Amino acid sequence: MTRMEKPSIMVVDDQPVNLKLLEEMLKELGYGVRSFPRGRLALAAAVQHPPDLILLDINMPEMDGFEVCRQLKANVKLSRIPVIFLSALNETEDKVRAFQAGGVDYITKPFQCDEMRSRMETHLQLHQLQKALQEQNDQLEEIVRSRTRELAEALARVEILDQSKGDFLNLISHEFRTPLNGLLGIAEILLDASGSESKEFREMFDESRRRIMTILDHALLLTQIDIEGDKFAMERVSLPSLLSAALEAATEFARSRNVTLVLEPTDSAVVLGTMDLLVKAFQALLETAVKFSDPGGTVRIVCSYPPKAAHVAIESQGRSLPASAIPKFFDIFSIGETITQGGDLGLGTSLAHRILSLCGGSAAIKNRLPSGIEMTVALRSA
């Protein structure tokens, strides 16, 4: 109903005199009126054109006012229309039945025009407010449904893009390795054929090959964690076994830099994580510590056990970090910045940080005094 429309009131009473009296009074008050002598006729008309309010008599043939009201309230289209009972019955029991049937008010005959007008206006205003509120709720629900559809479509696109990114990187890795292996194979043959004078070139070649393959492996694993992180199952991992496996994996790189890896005695702690991933994370951190060590230096692994956690400190002796590099030590975008004596960090620290986060852990970095760095890993106890 717009502001220009008159409120529509339906009157249901089997007495023609009452209908005529109510019609004249309501029209004089400015309302649109429709009158019906039977409840069945009123119900059919209400379905076709729902009124804003119904004035309903109780004692009628065929169907009394209580049953008419119950059928109105059972119809979803009509259930919100306010019903005011008009009746000569003034017993408490009758009023209770009227409210139980769904009426909002009860006026006994004979009634006062001013009283009826006041009550009707009150219920019409409430009805209009309820309609406005329902319309607003419907609009909000439609907005929510629309946004939900948009988000679902956006999520589907993101999933497709993620899958495409993973497929693309796997394809690039495969296609990149094939010609790369050919180039590296030819370079190795040429180096072998050049004799002992090429030792320095051999070392440069081996380091470059190791670095290229490591970056490829780390990039693919980072992508896999980003796309399928929720598919990695957490399990109980023996900390001593984990550190021993990581130390073994990093030993060759440490030996090539003339650095010794030492695992201090540790308790039989059990942490939460994925064994293979955690081994890669600690291998990457150990190799990073080696890069900061002077030849002949030592990288130590020291464990401590605060409540519900296990801390692993990786300590190196040698170079320190520039102050500006500490905040972005684990940042993937720092790959190209030369902040160690052996060049940039590669993807190792970023990969380690991502794996530890996936396992509910964390990593921190600080400089040691007088020199060197210390990386501290925190893992959850199982």
Describe this structure as you would to a colleague.
There is one protein chain. With 382 residues, the protein is of the alpha/beta class. The protein has three domains: 8-111, Rossmann fold, CATH 3.40.50; 153-228; 233-380, Heat Shock Protein 90. It contains nine helices and 14 strands. It has helices spanning 16-28, 39-48, 65-74, 92-101, 113-193, 199-228, 239-256, 275-291, 348-358, and strands spanning 8-12, 32-36, 53-56, 83-87, 105-108, 235-238, 260-263, 270-273, 298-304, 309-315, 338-340, 343-344, 362-367, 373-380. A five-stranded parallel β-sheet has the order 2-1-3-4-5, sandwiched between helices. The chain has a five-stranded mixed β-sheet with strand order 7-9-10-14-13, covered by helices on one side. Helix 8 packs antiparallel against helix 9. The longest helix has 81 residues, at 113-193. The relative contact order is 0.07. The mean pLDDT is 84.
Integer count of domains:
3
Q: Helix count, per DSSP?
A: 9
CATH superfamily of the largest domain: Histidine kinase-like ATPase, C-terminal domain
| Terminus-to-terminus distance | 65 Å
Gyration radius, in Å:
41 Å
Helix and strand content put the structural class at: alpha/beta
CATH class of the largest domain: Alpha Beta
What are the secondary-structure elements, in order, as H or E? Answer: EHEHEHEHEHHEHEEHEEEEHEE
Main pleated-sheet profile: 5 strands, parallel
- The strands making up the biggest β-sheet line up spatially as 2-1-3-4-5
Examine the coordinates and then state which fold CATH places here, giving the name of the CATH topology of the largest domain: Heat Shock Protein 90
- Helical content stands at 40-55%
Label the CATH architecture of the largest domain. Answer: 2-Layer Sandwich
Strand content: 15-25%
